Amino acid sequence: MTMRDEPRRGSAGPANLRDDGRHPVRAGEFPPLEREAYEWVMRFRTGAAGPADLAALKRWSETSPAHLEAYDRMSRAWIALGAVAEELSSANSVARYARTAPSAASPGEAAVTRRALIGGALAASVAGVALSVHPPFGFWPSWSEFAADYRTATGEQRQITIDDIGIDMNTRTSIALRPAAGVVRRIELIAGEAALSSPAEDVLTVEAGNGRVVAAGARFNLRHDGGQVRVACLDGDVRVECGGDARVLGPGRQVLYSEHGVGQAVAVDTNAVTAWQGGLVIFRSTPISDVVEEINRYRPGRVILTNKDLGRRQLSARFRIAEMDQVVGQIEQVFGVRATMLPGGIVLLG
After folding, report:
1. Residue 73 to residue 337: CA distance in whole angstroms
2. Residue 185 and residue 271: Cα distance in Å, rounded?
3. Of the candidates 243, 273, 303, which is a domain's last residue?
């Protein structure tokens, strides 16, 4: 078995939102009023507040309409954090936060960082919460991803060759090798996205999710997100198998499969499918909810939509992966919304 690993071709873009003069934000900072509101939300969510805190919050929120609006926005943001918020609420990290939280009379700097989020969730896991199988918001890899032979980090891309099999790995991608008799002809795409070239003289099988792709002398792009797998044929022919269903794809054809079976093959723009290999991401009348999910694949932390109506609106644009945070700024300008940076690379968009 021969392997060659090319140097990394991509890296994570800047983690901070750009300062466009309207919302100057930096890592670990957000406007003072919203920082105070976030402190209040944390205090009540962690159960550390008492009757005196409730009275103090009432006085604080009545200071101005902006105070009440900030508290409402931070409350909705905390709810949007979903699983992470729930686990933090019952984890040891919450007790640690409560011990270090400032007094009710003067909410101050929040001691919440990405490390705290991860540490708290891991503490909950130790306490019996099975977070390692499906880590909330993808803040860290699952156990199966840790066991991969090759894995790319957030924003990283990698090019490898294994026994004449060419593999381009996109960001947050994990691959496991399944050699037989010293030769690799079977690969598992545990998660993420990869473009593969199979040798003409041998059959290559790539397993992903509950199905597989079988090819010889073909090029194809494979993306595995959660329980759904997307296969696009770039050159030659590939056979997609899932359960009792199967589809043969020619160049420019794509299919989705999941636990519900294999969908119908459709035509696809292969240049758009493989744009990531050239360091680009292309949106064509893409719902903002899907745009946000794509942003989250390439940058540390998490962008969270706090406005469902915004999620249904559409964006058409082309961006360089290394400048992915510009997408957030573009959404702000085009749709008249704003983004707020929280500690740990979390951005509230709505």
Report:
1. 13
2. 27
3. 273
pLDDT tens digits, one per residue of 153-200: 888 999 999 988 999 999 999 999 988 766 778 999 999 999 999 988
Tell me the C-alpha distance between 189 and 149, whole Å.
11
- Residues 345 and 348: their CA atoms lie apart, in Å, by 10
Distances (CA, A) of 157 to 268, 317, 322: 23, 22, 11
> So what's the pLDDT on residue 5?
65
Question: Which phi and psi (to 5°) does residue 6 adopt?
Answer: -80, 155
Cβ atoms of 74 and 41 within 8 Å: the answer is yes
Nearest to 102, CA basis, from 92, 94, 111:
111
Residue 334 structural domain: 277-349
**Size of the chain, expressed as the number of residues it contains:** 350
Share of the chain above pLDDT 90, in %: 39
- CATH code, domain with 338: 3.55.50.30
The two structure tokens encoding residue 9: 């071709």
pLDDT, tens only, 11-44: 333 333 333 333 333 334 457 887 888 787 777 6
**Tokens 């790995």 -> residue:** 169
This model's pTM is above 0.70: no
Please state, in angstroms and as integers, the Cα–Cα distance from residue 265 to each residue in 49, 135, 254, 284, following that order.
56, 32, 5, 20
What contacts 286, CB < 8 A, 6 or more positions away? Answer: 294, 314, 315, 316
